[in-house]
Amino acid sequence: MDRSARIALGSVVVALTVLALKFLAYQVTGSVALYSDALESIINVAAAAAALIALRVSARPADATHPYGHSKAEYFSAVAEGVLIVLAAFSIIREAIPALQNPRTLEAPWNGLAINLGATLLNGLWAGVLLRTGRAVRSPALLADGRHVLTDVVTSVGVLAGVALAALTGVSWLDPALALLVAVNILWSGWHLVRESVGGLMDAGVDPHTENRIRQLLSTHADGALEVHDLRTRHAGRMTFVEFHLVVPGAMTVQDAHAICDRLEEALFAELPGVAVTIHVEPPDKAKHHGVVVV
Fold it and tell me: 48: buried, middle or exposed (CB in 10 Å: 19+, 13-18, 0-12)?
């Protein structure tokens, strides 16, 4: 089991622990807001399990039917997580509206808040682990899980503040009203997660900063070539694919052209670990006189 899979398995354990603590807080208080916070943790469990499965699938090597590997499996996990977040939001709304119409006094609010605070601290620490590891290994599944857990932490902090305010003031409708705000926040985060993941499935290009860096590398390491044009990029899970046409002098030998290609590939590998590079070498008459200027 590689590092990503171990972290994903840890996410399942942490999510189950946080879920148990948050539902205990809800049982102690009867707070709809704390219930909404606990319900989002059910999504954390499902999302962590989906991420674990996706990481195991994406780690499989390329085969006859999947010559480019299985790295896009992680995007399916992220899309599924976004859909689950949206479903959780509608479940919260279903519980909050009746409670808003007939608000009730909270029971033992401070005990429940203390339990929920412990769960929130645990979640916050784990969100940091997920985001650091996701960036290090370039994993969309871990990054999506980390962002979701971080959203859960922010939501929990708001819930804690709101429930404490309701307990201090005795204004019962604050609790279900806060639950509705939580639902809106969850819907917003779910929409962004689905949009980003669909972009990956649709072969969206790299971000502008990364593309500019790729262009700089091609410009400074293509000495001996005449032109680089038709640069295309896309992400597929932890893989980044870079394709371009390289125009070389007509009298250049195949060996010399190949040396330029090797130099370009090495520069890109150093900048983007796991990159897959495809270079189409062309003669001078194929030049388009635009694209990347060779320094």
Answer: buried
Residues 138 and 16 reside in one and the same domain: yes
Quick one: which H or E segment has residue 246?
strand 239-247
9-37: burial string, b at 16+ Cβ within 10 Å, e else: bbbbebbebbbebbbbbbbbbbbbbbbbb
Q: How many CB atoms lie within 10 A of CB 74?
A: 29
Residue 265 lies in a domain: yes
pLDDT at 261: 95
Q: Give the pTM.
A: 0.56
pLDDT, tens only, 185-225:
777 777 776 776 666 666 667 888 889 999 999 999 999 99
- Find, among 150, 28, 37, the residue nearest to 96 by Cα: 37
Residue 9 lies in domain = 3-201
Residue 194 sits at the vertex; the CA angle it makes with 77 and 126, to the nearest 5 degrees, is 60
pLDDT tens for 60-104 read 777 777 776 666 666 666 677 677 777 777 877 877 788 777 777
State the Cα–Cα distance between residues 96 and 90, nearest whole angstrom.
10
